Amino acid sequence: MTYISPISPGFSWYEDTVGERPEYPSLEGDVTADVVIVGGGFTGLSAAAHLAKAGVNVVLIEAYRFGDGASGRNGGQLGTGQRAGAEEMEAEYGFERAKALFDLAEEAKAHLLEFAETNAIEIDFRPGHLNVTHKKRELPEFEEHAEAMTARFGYPHLSMMDAGETAERVGSTQYVGGVRDTGTGHIHPLKLVVGTARVAGAAGAKLFENTKSTGITSNGGKIRVGTERGSITADKCLIATNAYGADLEPVSAAHIMPIGSFIGATVPLGDDSPVLPGGESASDSRFVVRYFRKSPDGRLLFGGREIYAVDDPKDISIHIRRQIAEIYPALKDVEITHAWGGYVGITMPRKPFVREVMPNVISSGGYSGHGVMLSNFTGKLYAEAVAGNRDRLKLIEDMKIPPFPGGRRFRAPLLFLALNWYALRDRI
């Protein structure tokens, strides 16, 4: 029987190809732990795996199934550095701190690949990424970025592409240039979720699915996480719900906003297809970004962000096919076999949000579309903090993340207006 996530629309190609997806029990009764984790995506599972390997008694609960949120349904692109560009970080924080944040993100990339290899998790990694633009006026900024990465940030893997090379590598003439990144790549995210859960469980973490938190309190040096059929009492807590925790804790909800992200998978295009012949992933410079890549069996996996939630997979297909046709006119009638969505947690400045939101309770999220490597590594950094070294996690904690304006009542309408404005600018 096909499993359909109750919190994310559509049936994904990832679910169709992940192989065995083990189920974990629900929590029944009251338990104690050193650390309780709320949220079974990349951040929570990574933290559980690293904590358990260090001998920490850790309990993790997930309201639905592991990977039902963005961790198991995203575009699979690793990215490079933080979501905000290194030059932007330097302008805000100075070179030394910007370089430290860039290096941390690059370590996150290496760690993800090493973790998968060490633990025999087949994540279908394929190298290469193309960041492209349809606006000639953006090309000088692209070139300056590539030069700065090599000269100032020690990252020699970027090279500028002219219109001809871009057309050849993307398989489309819709873009006027871009930057090729040979130091990154893309993966099958749900395979990483399933594999990380396996590693965490084998190390001794107690993992529970279909166990929704009904509230978190911190009192007298102890954390209590209530559930519908029990509770967990612990010394420390990690909230790792990202875009799906709006009703759980108000500080995170004020700083992290969910927006829908939707993907379609086509039929295999065939060996003679001109689409992305080098196997790289691609994303464009639109504010409402389009991101796409080919699967190992030759399908085009094409994603774009919506301003509002789309609940019907048929609507997702219509929207995605329209975007595909703009870039690849020959595919205007291509069959889309899978269409799905999920919700990405974003922050105002597109930088991750990590804060101690109540005594001994840390919340992490808001990776803003750059979470495949950053969220996994943040879980590792949280485990380091529990062990007594919080210095590296503090690099992220100390970033300036203002709350969304408008409060709980008006922030969603204000974001809707803002995203529509930026979407209009994308067309100019």
From TrEMBL:
Short name of any one Pfam family annotated for the protein: DAO
Classification via PANTHER family: FAD DEPENDENT OXIDOREDUCTASE DOMAIN-CONTAINING PROTEIN, SARCOSINE DEHYDROGENASE-RELATED
GO cellular component, one term: cytoplasm
Record keywords, A-Z: Oxidoreductase
Superkingdom of origin organism: Bacteria
Domain (FAD dependent oxidoreductase) ranges: 34-384
Name of the protein described by the UniProt record: Oxidoreductase
Lineage, opening ranks: Bacteria, Pseudomonadati, Pseudomonadota, Alphaproteobacteria, Hyphomicrobiales
InterPro entries the record matches: FAD-dep_OxRdtase (IPR006076), FAD/NAD-bd_sf (IPR036188)
GO function terms (MF aspect): oxidoreductase activity
